[in-house]
Design goal:
247 residues; mainly beta; four-stranded antiparallel sheet; 16 strands
Length: 247
């Protein structure tokens, strides 16, 4: 005899696989610039000092009056002007929250929770973030229905879904992606970028970033609805978040 109940508890365990590959870029050095009146031994003249180097025939402004900063990009390269930085491209990923928990489910209200992860991208290429895993499943193998099409929460119906934006239904919760520092930031992907609309399809791309998008913090908003006859027990869902460089 199966046990039927109105209350169940879900803990979501977030794991991640971080896969990326980037081409190796070589750099060639140039010979020192010289003339009958001066020679540049250093590789750059910067604006960090307070003294102007000068002579009858040249002047190097180090007081900050002449500073060039900005980004130049093309299909296969990227140049950042300003202070000296490493020439190695960098793409990193981290989960910021412990395993989120819904607490107890109820057939009379939608249950919510959130988790966060971040992607830091300073490369000439972009990235995609995918999610894979199972919907909430109890110890008897019963799974709460994963929303394969974008849907609003419906109380009293088995539902499990996510998005990556700020929502007002069923309550105000979640957040839009926090835009990158020193970059344009990443974005929630199609099917996961609409407020109050939820979906969960294992393998879907949930976020994307363009070249040198900087640091972006993403918030995953989860919803669960259950029916009167949803089997009781403790429900768990293992979610894997995969960040892959694109080029």
């Amino acid at each position: 005899m199966s046990v039927l109940g109105r209350r169940a508890q879900l803990s979501i365990y977030l794991g991640y696989a971080f896969l990326w590959a980037l081409p190796v870029i070589g750099f060639a050095g140039a010979a020192a610039s010289t003339s009958p009146n001066y020679q540049l031994i250093e590789t750059a003249l910067g604006g960090n000092g307070t003294v102007n180097s000068q002579s009858t025939n040249y002047q190097a402004s180090q007081s900050g009056a002449l500073i060039g900063v900005g980004t130049s990009t093309g299909t296969n390269y990227q140049a950042q002007t300003g202070h000296e930085t490493t020439n190695d491209p960098a793409l990193s990923f981290a989960i910021l929250t412990a395993a989120p928990s819904f607490g107890s489910f109820s057939p009379t209200s939608t249950t919510t929770t959130t988790s966060q992860f971040e992607v830091s991208d300073y490369t000439s290429y972009g990235y995609v973030v995918q999610i894979s895993g199972t919907p909430p499943t109890n110890s008897y193998g019963f799974q709460i229905h994963a929303l394969s099409a974008n849907s609003a929460p419906t109380i009293g119906t088995d539902q499990f879904g996510i998005n990556l934006v700020a929502n007002t239904n069923p309550i105000s919760f979640g957040a839009n992606p926090s835009l990158g520092q020193f970059g344009a930031g990443g974005a929630a992907a199609t099917n996961y970028n609409t407020a109050n609309s939820y979906r969960f399809v294992s393998g879907d791309v949930i976020a994307t970033g363009s070249q040198s998008s900087g640091l972006t913090i993403y918030t995953i908003s989860y919803i669960v609805n259950v029916a009167d006859i949803t089997p009781g027990g403790q429900y768990t869902s293992v979610q894997n978040i995969i960040c892959t460089g694109t080029y």
